[in-house]
Amino acid sequence: MKTINESSGGDFILVGFSDQPQLEKILFVAVLVSYLLTLVGNTAIILVSCLDSMLHTPMYYFLTNLSFVDLCFTTSIVPQLLWNLHGPSKTISPTGCAIQLYVSLALGSTECVLLAVMAFDRYAAVCRPLHYAAVMHPRLCQSLAGVAWLSGVGNTLIQGTITLRLPRCGNHRIYHFICEVPAMIKLACVDIHANEVQLFMASLVLLLLPLTLILVSYGCIAQAVMKIRSAEAWRKALGTCGSHLIVVSLFYGTITAVYIQPNSSYAHRQGKFITLFYTVITPTLNPLIYTLRNKDVKGALRRLVRKEKTTGE
To answer: β-pairing, 91-92 with 12-14?
Structure first.
């Protein structure tokens, strides 16, 4: 096992994958490549959505917000993860840990609500096509995005502050690769049952409630699609919703496994790999899913490239 430098004073030690040195080398390369793809892919979606007037629609407004959330989310985690994977030092300062906890929790919570908002947008597009422009007007879109951001910030101010105020009695070894609430509360030297209940209740509100709204939205969409007899309309409806469904499945399928499962069944190694998936892999796949399956985005990228070539000539 790789020796961890523990001369850290009051710093936290992110144990991470230090018991598997060979795996750390593989993860370093994989995480670095994923992070670069995340930066390029999500930045491209933001630029294209902002620069191409044909993408100035509610769907791409929310997609821009999602890409921005993913960019900031991974950036709050991956640089520190890469540093710890690369060298023997696994430490993070108390301030750095607090910032990572607050920022990642806020952005993760925001994404949960934002995906539900995007599902409502798809519901309006498929089930209320004639009234779509009236329903999803710019002010409502801004308000819905604002609710998502405020929900994330509110949750992190409550959960993050309560978690960081727990007495730790000198415990500073975090058996994870990030400062995340489920891992941080295990450092406490007091009874954490109330904290676990509080975390579970917050997860119900910010995970299961949005997921329920998403399922209801797609239930209505499925009913509407079943009534469509045109093959072209079928393809358009499925194309409109398919990308979002894939993103929802990937994100919720992994994050709920960490935040909803009972503490007694939370395996350290399993939890770390699941967390790695929704913090690193999913933000990388999101732009690929939306661009590879979306003709509008691919068309906008082609128009932007042609415009750049024309300007260059």
So the answer is: antiparallel
Q: Alpha-carbon Rg of the chain, whole angstroms?
A: 21
Q: Encoding tokens for residue 66?
A: 């999602």
pLDDT in tens, 72-96: 999 999 999 999 988 777 889 999 9
- The CA dihedral of 299, 297, 78, 106, to the nearest 10 degrees, is 160
Q: With beta carbons less than 8 A apart as the criterion, state whether 104 and 155 touch.
A: no
pLDDT, tens only, 115-165: 999 999 988 988 888 888 889 999 999 999 999 999 999 999 999 999 999
Structure tokens at 152: 């994330």
Q: Each residue of 223-265: pLDDT tens digit?
A: 887 777 666 666 766 666 777 788 888 888 888 877 876 454 4
pTM of the model: 0.87
Q: Are 74 and 36 in contact (CB under 8 A)?
A: no
214 SS3 class:
helix
Cβ contact 8:172 at 8 Å: yes
**DSSP string across 42-81:** HHHHHHHHHH-GGG-SHHHHHHHHHHHHHHHHHHTTHHHH
